[in-house]
């Protein structure tokens, strides 16, 4: 695509341009450092499993086309903290695109059925933060993705909350800017309302997430605000204490995708409480959620670093029709102005009560003590039975890392710094 080629070259040459304004979370909204409310128009970006932010030329090609789409953010599920990300991050910065980075790695997930939070996990998460905190266009970090997908998984919630607490304490102790740290949840009706309240309850701002992302595929075109169930999502997000947004969305059944849900998300019904959405996903794969492809599907016998699962993972991005143009048209119409930070009162949002356990559903009873460094594991209530549900396209189950269990890290700033003094 000629336009993409020209834009990608321009983005590469603009790598040294002035950096984007930083973004912070205040109350239930995101604001740029110039005081403008920020709404996410994002796409999930996972070209390669290990790290898509290392090939500057590929980043430039993709960023150029994302810019024409109206994208202002990408979500990246895995990164290698030891790699050089300067060029890719500069390319996306020049295109006006922020990044949301998952901190967990392939062997450091918090496991849903046997949860623990140990020094190896903490160190690996912190290593990713150490690598990416310096970039102005880092919008936020996720401490987990869809860890809780059925009732017996809810016992992992205190470990998710402890990980956010300890990474926030580490961020502040290191003197990094207050990059928001949050969680990306599966949309499970009998668990999600309790989880979003639990991760933001307790009255201690150091122990709650800075934002809450939701992976929801409820709205499948053709649909509507009431029919899709978004009306219920909105009721449960009304005056939420931290920013809430769709960290994945874009149901492709029956297809094609019209993206009428974006009208609701950025319109009068939801825009006062929601901070935007991330569409799943950039590249075409077997699940057919892609907004672009990198050319015709390779021959079944083809192999190579740029081919995985029968689909090319690099090259010139070509829009998938009609999904790409449909989303572009919806985002072009979605122009919320929001509120200026100077006119926003953060105390207008509501603090949530910690949810009680429910029979056969949410198993954590109230504001249980979180795992602490050197202490024993949390002992939540465990009433009820498990119930299964389908996960979103990005859901991943990983084997437990083989290392010594420690039930958590200290919530206090001193404890975190003492640990890292020893570890380093």
From TrEMBL:
The keyword Signal applies. Keywords: Disulfide bond, Glycoprotein, GPI-anchor, Lipoprotein, Membrane, Signal, Transferase. Gene3D superfamilies: Glycosidases (3.20.20.80). GO terms for cellular component: plasma membrane; side of membrane. The keyword Nucleus does not apply. Residues 380-396 have a biased composition (Low complexity). GO terms for biological process: fungal-type cell wall (1->3)-beta-D-glucan biosynthetic process; fungal-type cell wall organization. It is a lipid-anchor; GPI-anchor. InterPro entries: GH, Glucanosyltransferase. Residues 375-403 are annotated as: Disordered. GO terms for molecular function: 1,3-beta-glucanosyltransferase activity. PANTHER family: 1,3-BETA-GLUCANOSYLTRANSFERASE GAS1, 1,3-BETA-GLUCANOSYLTRANSFERASE GAS2. Splits internally a 1,3-beta-glucan molecule and transfers the newly generated reducing end (the donor) to the non-reducing end of another 1,3-beta-glucan molecule (the acceptor) forming a 1,3-beta linkage, resulting in the elongation of 1,3-beta-glucan chains in the cell wall. Belongs to the glycosyl hydrolase 72 family. This is 1,3-beta-glucanosyltransferase.
């Amino acid at each position: 695509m000629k336009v993409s080629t020209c834009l990608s070259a321009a983005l590469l040459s603009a790598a040294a341009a002035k950096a984007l304004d930083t973004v912070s979370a205040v109350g239930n909204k995101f604001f740029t450092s110039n005081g403008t409310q920020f709404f996410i128009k994002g796409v999930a970006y996972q070209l390669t499993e290990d790290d898509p932010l290392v090939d500057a030329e590929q980043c430039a090609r993709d960023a150029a086309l994302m810019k024409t789409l109206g994208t202002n953010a990408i979500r990246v599920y895995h990164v290698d903290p030891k790699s050089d990300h300067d060029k890719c991050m500069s390319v996306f910065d020049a295109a006006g695109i922020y990044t949301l980075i998952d901190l967990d790695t392939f062997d450091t997930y918090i496991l849903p059925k046997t949860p623990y939070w140990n020094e190896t996990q903490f160190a690996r998460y912190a290593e990713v933060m150490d690598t990416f905190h310096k970039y102005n266009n880092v919008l936020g970090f996720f401490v987990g993705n869809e860890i809780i997908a059925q009732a017996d998984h809810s016992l992992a919630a205190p470990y998710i909350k402890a990980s956010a607490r300890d990474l926030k304490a580490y961020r502040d102790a290191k003197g990094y800017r207050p990059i928001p740290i949050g969680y990306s949840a599966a949309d499970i009706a009998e668990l999600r309302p309790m989880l979003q309240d639990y991760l933001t309850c307790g009255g201690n701002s150091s122990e709650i997430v800075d934002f809450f992302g939701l992976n929801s595929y409820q709205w499948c075109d053709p649909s509507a605000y009431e029919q899709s169930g978004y009306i219920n999502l909105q009721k449960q997000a009304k005056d939420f204490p931290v920013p809430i947004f769709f960290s994945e969305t874009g149901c492709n059944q029956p297809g094609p995708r019209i993206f009428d849900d974006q009208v609701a998300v950025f319109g009068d019904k939801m825009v006062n409480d929601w901070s935007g959405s991330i569409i799943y996903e950039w590249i075409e794969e077997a699940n057919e959620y892609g907004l672009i492809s990198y050319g015709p599907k390779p021959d079944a016998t083809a192999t190579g670093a740029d081919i995985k699962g029968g689909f090319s993972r690099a090259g010139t991005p070509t829009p998938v029709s009609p999904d790409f143009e449909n989303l572009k048209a919806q985002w072009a119409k979605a122009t919320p102005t929001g509120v200026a930070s100077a006119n926003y009162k953060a105390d207008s949002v509501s603090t949530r009560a910690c949810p009680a356990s429910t029979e056969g559903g949410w198993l954590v009873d109230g504001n249980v003590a979180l795992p602490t460094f050197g202490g024993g594991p949390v002992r939540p209530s465990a009433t009820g039975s498990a119930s299964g549900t389908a996960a979103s396209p990005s859901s991943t189950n990983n084997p437990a890392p083989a290392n010594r269990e420690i039930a958590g890290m200290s919530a206090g700033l001193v404890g975190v710094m003492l640990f890292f003094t020893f570890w380093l």
